[in-house]
Amino acid sequence: MNRLDFTDNIPDTTRVVWVSQKAKDRWSPVITSINAIWSQLELETVFRNEREATIQTVAPDKIVNFCKRVMSYGCFITELGKSADTGFYSSRHQPAIEGQPYTYRVAVHRSNVYFEDSVLSAVTRLGYPGCCAKFFDNTWNKEHYFDTTWPQHLNSHLYRPHANLLLKSIGLRPCFHLPCSFDCEHTEKVSSMIARVAEQLGYEKIMEGLYQLLDMPMEWSALHGYAEIKTPIFKVITKTDATGEEYKFQFPGSFYPDESARANKFPYVVPAKQMTLFKSQDFAESTLSPEDNGFPSYQAETEAHNKILSSLSDNIDSNDSGALVDLGCGNGLLLSKIGRLFPNLKLSGVEVEIAKSDKAQQLLGFGVAISCKNMFLYDLVDIKYILIANQRILENPKFLEKLHGTVFIYDYLTHEVEVCSLDTLKRLT
Fold this sequence. Notes:
- The protein is 33% helix and 18% strand.
- By secondary structure, the protein is of the alpha/beta class.
- It has two domains: 7-251, no CATH class; 285-428, 3-Layer(aba) Sandwich (Rossmann fold).
- The strands form three sheets. It has a six-stranded mixed beta sheet with strand order 11-10-9-12-13-14.
């Protein structure tokens, strides 16, 4: 990124512009709920022995009760300094100014050892992945980026909700650190831990809303020191590194809220007449249940799908125009995601349950053939890529004899994906 030297002179600001009052009424309370629990989640991961320490900002009028609560859990506090309370998100802590509002910046830790604010502490005590700490040290401390979003994009191959911090300025983030990439596997583990703690606290619905928002398609662009993050329901304007030319990339998420704006450009919902793989105008992905696809929650479904998409990306060229079938496609959500990742593939799906196959056809449109039949009776002629669950093969091991090409065998429980060539299949049979 060709950065200019006046970033420090640009005032911090964060502004949200909604596409409609309806979208704001539906999703603004969700964002408020997420922000309301985030500080508690950070503390609870320490109190519940998931990691050694966390860093918090505390208002002066709340510091006494905060300290009492920390001590009640047998934890310790190290004051790291005071920061200016600007009222806006800032990626850097501004020094407190005499007579102006400020907050305390403190470390809460389980062991009675002085907390040193360093990269080493980030890994060993805050529980941040080593790859992300190294990335932060390089981009932040050495290259002096104000915003690490663009380097994170350059370091990414895929884009995952579990490492999506594009909306961090309005408090929407899946983890406590700055990931090194949008597909960091180590960050996925941290995000899963946070989600698990949230579930233990009874915040499943709030976290589901978080992951839905982080899985929206987004476009990030930056120019003259301000970033604009567009989503289907709002856009965010916030401070970033100053540049004299525009930088832009797209996050190809898969969740379109019912209240999404309709337009011909990414990331909005394409009008029905111009759609191919995208959902029909009167059918929203938010109406689909994870249970249609055998998952207990939206997050579990997303994690499983991400594993499959990652395996497909490692083994299929993005411009491949071969045929792919999803045997047991459920409501078609996975096929919809595959269609966005591989726009040239000829997609089809097989689903034995009528209600699910109808949903898949509505979601995908008639450019994708959905067959409502028993997958074991499906004719697999001229299919280059096949998706099938390991559980289905266990039901009918002889079905392996019918498979050909490249087969992606995934496991609902472990989320692992095995890629089998024709030779491998012969050995299995």
